[in-house]
Amino acid sequence: MKNSPPHDRGIINRYRQYLPVTDTTPVVSLNEGSTPLIYSPWLSKAVGRGAQVYIKYEGLNPTGSFKDRGMTVAVSKALERHARFVICASTGNTSAAAAAYAARAGLSCAVLLPHGKIATGKLLQAFLYGAKMISLRGNFDNALDIVRQFSENPEAEIVNSINPFRIEGQKTAAFEVVDELGDAPDLHLLPVGNAGNITAYWRGYREYHTSGKCATLPRMIGFQAFGSAPMVLGRIVEEPDTIASAIRIGNPASWKAATLAIHQSHGAVDTVTDAEIITAQVQLATKEGIFVEPASAAPIAGLLKYLSPQRSDNHPFPQLPDEARLVCTVTGHGLKDPNTPAGTGMNLIESDATLDSVRSILETD
Ligand code: F0G
């Protein structure tokens, strides 16, 4: 059998029958998706009772985050209807993905970014992909409010997750999990910012369930940063704050849909502190060799929080069956945010350029 040619890869061609495209939709793709689902011996052992924990490493998408899944669909549809430019508000990753896919489609791209709050790698990406970058004296929620007002402009395609095609594309990550595991996991843990991704996964699992691809459905467990936790608090956070800049959001656009997903799946939404996030980010790197940005470490931090003996309040673990399967989505690559606090203690040891000098350093504790 012949291998499929490279232009047949990417999530639209892989999952075409589940997506809102036709044979005439121009496919704008960078071969996104098909990210690794990595078994974690460390976390599996920590959960115990024969549990298997897997990491869905979405940082290995073409622009380094899960946003590429939604962007391939949103930008393809924008091109199909002859939009002239794409626009988004972003904490960084959406803007990187929008800029890349717009470049690929030959469309212009404008991004509105909260001033001073974007990780360096993400800024560099959007800049090099050629986007017009606007630094807003305001936060993400202010930026999204402005972007929403472009909905009347037929030349503009808003590519935030309020664009339904974004959620459609992102649901394919759930398909991939089921395709690899043979069924849905018992729990699916992920970070929550604007709440589009948790909504998308739940939709993906449900659609696969309806079409008989999985027999079960997971409980969806979302984690927000402690200083940016509107869904946990049940109210808008006016001045959200966390070192996990990707999820520094006080009024999630998909709040309602995500609440429904959590409710229908008998899941939960909880908080993790910045300190817990940084510890989880470092541990995931040192124990498993997986480097993620701070926001992406939130579900790992959440899992560790539930396993901690100090934790006395209710959490979903007591109800877990033996040999449970858990999937944690880690949403963005660690290299996007090189100034993260986890890197501040970096210990670089200087050496003369001699074997003796290097040896003596290796022999000291
Ligand atoms: N993780 C990362 C790395 C993100 O960039 C985001 C969102 C999330 C998690 C949360 O996903 O919004 O679907 O709940 N980033 C958006 C952006 C807001 O502009 O890049 P969500």
Notes on the protein architecture:
The chain is α/β, with parallel strands linked by helices and 365 residues long. 37% of the residues lie in helices and 14% in strands. The strands form two sheets. It has a six-stranded mixed sheet with strand order 1-2-10-7-8-9, sandwiched between helices. Strand 4 (108-114), helix 5 (120-128) and strand 5 form a beta-alpha-beta unit. The radius of gyration is 21 Å and the shape is globular. The relative contact order is 0.15. Ligand F0G is lined by residues 65, 67, 90-94, 161, 191-197, 246-247, 293, 295-296, 331-332.
Per-chain topology:
Blueprint: H1 11-14, E1 37-39, H2 41-47, E2 52-57, H3 67-80, E3 85-89, H4 93-105, E4 108-114, H5 120-128, E5 132-136, H6 140-148, E6 156-158, H7 164-170, H8 172-181, E7 187-191, H9 196-210, E8 219-225, H10 230-233, H11 255-264, E9 268-272, H12 274-288, H13 298-307, E10 325-330, H14 355-363
Parallel strand pairs: 2-10, 3-4, 3-6, 4-5, 7-8, 7-10, 8-9
Antiparallel strand pairs: 1-2
Helix pairs in contact: 3-4, 3-7, 4-5, 7-9, 8-9, 9-11, 12-13
Bound molecules: ligand F0G.
